[in-house]
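Minutes, structural biology subgroup

Action item carried over from last meeting: produce the structure token record for Chemotaxis protein CheW (Candidatus Wallbacteria bacterium HGW-Wallbacteria-1). EB confirmed the sequence was re-checked against the source entry. Recorded below for completeness.
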Amino acid sequence: MSAYENDELDIYITDEDDEDSMKDRFLTFSVGKEIYALEILYVLEIIGIQTITEVPDLPQYVKGVINLRGNVIPVMDVRLRFNLSAMEYHERTCIVVVDVEGVSVGLIVDSVAEVIHIPEEQQAAPPDLRKEKTSSFIKGMGKMKERVILLLDVNRLLYDDDRRICASISEAN
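Output recorded by EB:
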């Protein structure tokens, strides 16, 4: 099961968790006015916002790196990645550490909500919104009661060049 430490807002997946128990489970979070979700399989842990060391010559949405228990992790601001206006970080701002094709990356989100189960029959393909750049990150739509949750494809959040940069930062550990 997931562990939660209140004083540091750390949530992480333990070795006891397996793929079957996490199937169709999603971590929900807010960015701007929308609720998004990532498959829990990709989530390594959730931490509160902390000091970010800026690194020159990175895309604007890659804010820099953090030191997470001795590991240097690149972090990106999801607001900026989605072309939303920047916002000052606050006590509810979190960094969701995810695995993007073998590379740990921190995603800065406005707030984390909960882990929910969205059965496959309540998941739908995204509409064709080719005009919108952010639509390429949307893997599907989750239908939950009266709301729709946008399901993100964690592997598409970084462009190939950005993924190489993040991988080289992670390899420096």
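Discussion: Residues 1-15 have pLDDT under 50 and may be disordered.
Next step: EB to file the record with the rest of the batch.
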